[in-house]
Amino acid sequence: MPKIVNLIVAGALLLMAGCTSSSTAVTYHLLHPVAASAEAGSWDPSTYVVVGPVDLPSYLDRPQMVARKSDHTLSVNEYQRWAEPLDEGIARTVAENLSRLTGGDKVFLYPFDTPKASVSMQVFMDVVRFDTDEAGKAVLDVRWGVKNGEKEMLFMRHTSLSGDVEGADQPARAKALSRLVAEFSRDVAETLMNGK
After folding, report:
1. Closest C-alpha among 158, 160, 177 to residue 86
2. 148-180 pLDDT, tens per residue?
3. Among 16, 75, 115, 122, which lies 20 to 30 A Cα-Cα from 59?
């Protein structure tokens, strides 16, 4: 009988140890649109703008947040994750920023079928880098372009931005990346409005 009691106690201790080691909570982060300090302007209110698709490199195409340790190594944090697929988060945030910057109410996410005979533009993005590093820098490097409603290429651009992470925790990193998406969105808005 004592052997059975010992086995039960040992099993309970192992179960408790397993629960303790797996009790680290996962935190989920979102990119947030940033209120524009000044409006970039406005475009014809009848114009539809479709944002997306966003292509990501494989190292970013995951729920975990990624930080750069050096030029050749990365840190993938199992307990700090994006709350939505990162490509969708970037597209959503750019679309909302564009709407706020211009006051436009016809900004939609890809795929969206614009009404026939409407004026429309599509912003697509190929992200090269979107991460933070150990030195406290956030980086957004993206090749992007604009097509018209007939899928003809109007513009091709390459934007590389960086900024400081104001804090050492993951929310500060997500906030810094959100600021870079806002800055990028201002570039896109100006390009769409000025036509160049």
Report:
1. 177
2. 988 999 999 999 999 999 988 889 999 999 999
3. 122
